[in-house]
Specification:
176 residues, mainly alpha, Ferritin, elongated
């Protein structure tokens, strides 16, 4: 890799792979979530992700490049970590909290990657590419904020009830 343009293309290929991996994971995350707002957030982000892949395809056309052929190992690792949560038995606010944590790690990776690619495009004078990347960057940031709000407003308070139910049993065990 010798030019910033080559680095941008590499970043775009990485993002394309990441988004396509996420397209497969989001339906499973929505199915596992027990909180309705969280299910809806995952389903809505699935639709957004489809649009983000389309935007990346637009960028590929503008730059006259192919985006296939690279595997995003970071996304693969983040999703592999999250897979453990999907395999947990039962549904509960604690599992929902774990799903949000896994999803936010994904969002933070995407925010960093899209921000980097956008900065490269801007520096190269690729205004239309930078604008398309900014649109996705805004969506990723909004998704992260929505997950935080769901966690604070609904999921974490719901874990309090579970903790209170378990507290007498935990105290009895601790006394033994």
């Amino acid at each position: 890799m010798e030019t910033l343009h080559e680095l941008l293309v590499d970043e775009l290929k990485d993002l394309y792979s990441a988004e396509n991996q996420l397209l497969k994971a989001l339906p499973r995350m929505a199915k596992k979530a027990s909180n309705e707002a969280l299910q809806e957030a995952f389903t809505a982000h699935l639709e957004e992700t489809k649009g983000q892949v389309n935007r990346l395809n637009q960028i590929a056309e503008l730059l006259e490049i192919k985006l296939s052929g690279k595997k995003c190992k970071a996304m693969e690792g983040l999703l592999e970590e999250g897979k453990d949560i999907l395999e947990e038995k039962g549904t509960s606010p604690v599992i929902d909290a774990a799903l949000i944590g896994a999803a936010q790690r994904v969002e933070h990776y995407e925010i960093a990657a899209y921000g980097t690619a956008k900065a490269f495009a801007e520096h190269l004078g690729l205004t239309e590419v930078a604008e398309l990347l900014a649109e996705t960057l805004d969506e990723e940031s909004a998704a992260d904020e929505k997950l935080t709000a769901i966690s604070i407003d609904e999921i974490l308070p719901a874990t309090d009830a579970e903790e209170e139910e378990e507290a007498p049993a935990a105290k009895a065990t601790a006394r033994k």
